[in-house]
């Protein structure tokens, strides 16, 4: 699956943040939900306009962005 088929970046929608096409659901919200440990089913319950392929596309997009992100110093949290 190609994430480009499911994610759009449009300055008129959600200030140009990457969103699932046809929705205003930002990729960052989906990836954050997965990172928090939410089950994919719970994410879809919260945003019923999404499906599993949308979640997969969001994760693939995030992986792609992380692979090309500029390296910079990161402050380590004491969690």
Characterize the structure shown.
- The protein has 79 residues and is mainly alpha-helical.
- The chain has a single domain, classed as Arc Repressor Mutant, subunit A.
- It has 3 helices and 2 strands; from the N terminus they run E-E-H-H-H.
- It has helices at residues 27-35, 40-46, 52-68; strands at 7-8, 19-20.
- Helix 1 crosses helix 3.
Give the arrangement of secondary structure elements.
Layout lengths: L6 E2 L10 E2 L6 H9 L4 H7 L5 H17 L11
Antiparallel strand pairs: 1-2
Helix pairs in contact: 1-3
Strand content: 5-15%
CATH topology: Arc Repressor Mutant, subunit A
Count of DSSP strands: 2
Gap between N and C termini: 36 Å
Looking at the overall shape, the CATH architecture is Orthogonal Bundle
Provide the CATH top-level class. Mainly Alpha
Assembly state: single chain
Range of helix content: 40-55%
Number of helices: 3
Order of helices and strands: EEHHH
Radius of gyration: 14 Å
Mean pLDDT: 90
Backbone shape: globular
What are the main properties of this structure?
single chain; 79 residues; mainly alpha; Arc Repressor Mutant, subunit A; two-stranded antiparallel ribbon; 3 helices; 2 strands; 42% helix; 5% strand; globular
Could you provide a short overview of the structure?
With 79 residues, this protein is mostly helical.
